Amino acid sequence: MKNALIKSFGITALAAAVAACGGSGGGDAGSTGTASFDLTDAAVDGVQAVNITVVAVELKPADGQSISFDVENPENLDNINLLDLQNGSVEALLSNQELPAGEYEWIRLKLGDESTFSVIDDNGGINDLFVPSGDTRGLQTSGFVVPAGESASFTIDFDVRKSLVNPPGQDSYLLKPVLRLVDNSEVGIISGSIDPTLLANACSEAGFNTSVYAGAVYVHAGHEVTPDDLGSSNEPVVAAPVNTETYEYQASFISAGNYTVSYTCDMDERQDAEGKFINEDLTFIPAQGIESKVVAGEVTDVAIN
Q1: N-term to C-term CA, the chain
Q2: Is 158 exposed, middle or buried (0-12, 13-18, 19+ CB in 10 A)?
Q3: Nearest to 59 by CA among 178, 138, 140, 152
Q4: What are the DSSP E strand ranges found in 142-277?
Q5: Rounded distance between C-alpha atoms, residue 170 and residue 264, angstroms
Q6: Of 174, 161, 296, 141, nearest in space to 239 by CA
Q7: Cα–Cα distance, 157 to 178 (Å, whole number)
Q8: Class of domain 188-301
Q9: Sequence-separated (6 or more) residues with CB below 8 Å from residue 167
Q10: What secondary structure letter does DSSP report for 198?
């Protein structure tokens, strides 16, 4: 990444964001507000870098034509490594941009020259990366509100773990973007650690070396939820890899609410011939997960032991 303007969005920033009003209704005709948009990536393992280029963002008011803005410091967004934006780190797309107040249907990322995209795999190999033409709308998020006379701050989570596919028998990768938009005044963090003995036993039985792969923590929305894998009818909100040295994990930008947290040492990456995730029978610990609650601006500690 060239001269990256990456900043860490930790709990201090979360607390500050709570003070900003996200708003929930439209403004008066002709009124304006300001909004900021950052880009982050839910933590992922299995590759060293996923490089793309973002040149602009497009926003669609509920009433009116879409408006487009070149991203700030575009030279810095030439060849973003999305993996640099993990564990709460973000890259600014727009900061304190004045916008018509009211409801917006979506925000869309505009990508640059696809020939500059690449994936560096765990062996250091450089692979081509393509965005299927039919997935253009995949760069589009859900709606949001710009409050009249006030400021709002949002983060776009570009979930590489869910977006990146490597069809069997092909050297290139496909990027089928899965984006999640959150209001920074309404999110918290889930973090914790995995008991080393539990981790070692689970991973050794599964045939994994914990110094290379230490599993992942799955965060599912709601309580009394049976954990399931990517590609299932009940996908996790995020799947956060466990650090191979500290056995810790962090799931950032989680909307306030109830969640079920669980751990698996199984690798959830099997894909069919079209690159779609296959619904697997993963082993989760504990089997029914741990119920937790995320409060805006706070860190929820969930240890698995």
Answers
A1: 37
A2: buried
A3: 140
A4: 144-146, 151-158, 164-165, 173-175, 179-183, 187-193, 216-221, 238-241, 248-255, 257-264
A5: 28
A6: 161
A7: 8
A8: mainly beta
A9: 174, 271, 273, 274, 275
A10: H
The residues facing 34 across adjacent strands are 98, 151
Q: Are 110 and 47 in contact (CB under 8 A)?
A: no
Question: Count of residues for the chain?
Answer: 305
The pTM for the full model equals: 0.84
Query: 83 burial class (0-12, 13-18, 19+ CB within 10 angstroms)?
Result: buried
Residue type for 280, please?
Answer: E
Q: pLDDT per position in the chain (305 positions), as tens?
A: 333 334 444 444 444 443 443 334 444 557 999 999 999 998 888 889 999 988 889 999 999 999 999 886 655 566 789 999 998 999 999 999 999 999 999 999 988 888 889 999 888 999 999 887 655 555 788 899 999 999 999 999 999 988 888 877 778 888 888 899 999 999 999 999 999 998 888 888 878 888 888 999 999 999 999 999 988 888 999 999 999 999 999 999 999 999 999 999 988 766 666 666 677 788 999 999 999 999 999 999 999 99
- The C-alpha atoms of residue 37 and residue 169 are separated, in whole angstroms, by 38
